[in-house]
Amino acid sequence: MDIVEFTPERSQYVYTFGGAEPVMRVNPGTALALWSEDAYNHALRSVDDLASAKLDMRYLNPQTGPFYIVGAEAGDTLAVHIVSLTPARSWGASATIPFFGGMTSTDRTAMLQPALPEATWIYEVDTDASTVGFQSRFGDFEVALPLAPMLGTVGVAPAGSEVRSSLVPERFGGNMDTPEMKAGTTAYLGVNVEGALLSIGDGHYRQGEGEACGTAVEGAMDSVIIVELIKGGGPLWPRLENDDYWMVVGSSRPMEDSWRSR
Q1: Cβ–Cβ under 8 Å, residues 188 and 79
Q2: Domains in the chain with CATH codes
Q3: For residues 210 and 253, what is the distance between their CA atoms, to the nearest angstrom?
Q4: Is the pLDDT of residue 260 over 60?
Q5: Interatomic CA distance for residues 166 and 174, integer angstroms
Q6: 75-107, pLDDT tens digit by residue?
Q7: pTM of the model
Q8: Within 10 Å of residue 221's Cβ, how many Cβ atoms?
Q9: How much is the average pLDDT of 201-217?
Q10: Which stretches of the chain are assigned E, i.e. beta strand?
Q11: What 3-state class would DSSP assign to 11?
């Protein structure tokens, strides 16, 4: 099996699915050992760094890729086998961002209450204990939580020459933010363009079922994936498989309105 290692330079980060030239061509069956930056683009590094002052919303969820998969054509299926996910830093960060996330008003769903108080949390990674340590910003509560690494974004280029932000989910995959995107899972994505143009990123050291406040425990990630090409049979929506379940990702934008489609 071929193994390709790739750590992007900062100038190589991509912030969309579609619209970017591939960083390299990869044959099906290749194992990719990849490094990806955290969702904040390394802008939040301490509890004193606030999102409103530090984040540029144009440059969030930097992607590693895209990778041109040799032989992939529209209508095919890309199987992305997640072999391992390892935190690439000794800390992760979480934040509440004004008018962002499912617990507050947003630019797409207006409500009457004010934004949540803005804050940043730093979680220390204990590799030996396999935990991330939470410390309250507004009290004395502390707890060590089990590490549960996952990828927030796994996706291919959309159809129709569309270019979509790496902040959104859709049928091409993208920012799905499911904790099931973990080691041992295979993601099946429908190929829309020649070469598929696969990208990954948005590593999380831990997350619940979705990002209720808009973020998880965000962190840089070392990922090992194996990319397999299945001719034809492209799913209309991303499918996941592990040893126990077949899953369909139920993500939409905005998250706070998704109940209307149930």
Answers
A1: yes
A2: 3-261 (2.60.120.580)
A3: 12
A4: no
A5: 6
A6: 999 999 999 999 999 999 999 988 777 777 666
A7: 0.92
A8: 27
A9: 90
A10: 3-6, 16-17, 24-26, 31-36, 63-69, 77-87, 91-96, 119-126, 131-135, 142-146, 150-155, 164-165, 169-170, 173-175, 186-190, 196-206, 217-218, 221-230, 239-241, 246-248
A11: helix
